[in-house]
Design goal:
Mean pLDDT: 88
CATH class of one domain: Mainly Alpha
Structural class: mainly alpha
Oligomer: single chain
CATH topology of one domain: Serine Threonine Protein Phosphatase 5, Tetratricopeptide repeat
Low-confidence stretches: none
CATH architecture of one domain: Alpha Horseshoe
Order of helices and strands: HHHHEHHEEHHHEHEHHEEHEHH
Largest sheet: 2 strands, antiparallel
Strand order of the largest sheet: 1-5
Radius of gyration: 28 Å
Number of strands: 8
Helix content: 40-55%
Length: 390
Amino acid sequence: MKTQIQKIIGLLTISSLLFVSCETVDFGDENLNPNAVSKANTGALITGAMRNIPSIVSNVDSGVLYAQHVSEITYNDESCYETIQWNFDGFYSGPLMDLQTVINLNTSDPTAYSSSGSAGMQMGVAHLLQVYMYHVMTDRWGAIPYSEALKGVDNLKPKFDDQKDVYMGLFAQIDAALGMLDGGGLSGDFMFNGNATSWKKFGNTMKMVMALRIADVDAATAQAKFLEAHSAGVIGAGGDIHYPYTAADANDSPWQDRFQSRDDYATSNTMVDHLIASSDPRLHKYAQPVGQAGDASGQVTYATVDGKVYGGMPYGVLNPGILQSWVSYLPSEIIYTSAATKGGMLYSYAQVAFGYAEAAQRGWSVPGDAQTWYGIGINASMTQWGVKFS
């Protein structure tokens, strides 16, 4: 018995020594995946977040469709409002979290990530891109997670903030971001190539647009924010802000990808009829003449303008039985040329000019009167589309 006890004590002693020795073993990089990224590239995260903008500015399935600029030709489900659910999950798990990672890393250890530019530029641009996406989201869904969002496992059920609170938070976030933009360089920025002045104009223009959105519910705040943006500097003539698509398939226009092999959409009758009724010269830029006026059912209304026949596709009609050649299709400039050279528009000078017209009409202290700014906005839109107008 005594011998057995001694053996047990001996085994326990050896085992304890093995456990202690294991704690001090250095396995080096044996457990590291040599093909995996071990440190975040903050410049690449910013690039990745920007790559989500086309889904906002060039999404034909909801924006221009529901505004009835275009109509579906064959598959008319969406124009009949049969899509009943969208969600914002992809924003939070994708670009918003990537941008928050850029902010967090540059807050905790800016020196370690200086290869992507100054901490001020990285965080300032990340904040502005977050605001842009949050703004789109709250305008679409109203109350959204904001103040408690992007905390990861620390808060898996963030509260929904009222839209007013989201807007006030976004205004504060813009102001903070503008103060961070120090011109210290930024890699991964294919929108403005790290130009702090351009990003400041982006932020101020965004603030101006947001101010007008709340003008009917909080006129005092709207006026104050609009005038702040005006004083700080927004985009001017020729300064349109658009997503820079390229010819490469990895970054070309979704419109080009969507239309080059399918004929799902045409210019809507709502759009064509309005342009014809108002003698708008942009008709020839927004719609092609029909291939053949062949609608025997009488659903398409045809009109001749400058010797060319136009007919908009009826909107929201299930199974209309209308061929693409019978209606005014979209010009190739919209699908290909404009998409490649101008990209999806985030903010245009025409939009800014109309904003000034509204501000003047409301009696805010802006230079010029409403009529003058309205005319400037029309001319800016004509110029944007290459139309000579007087």
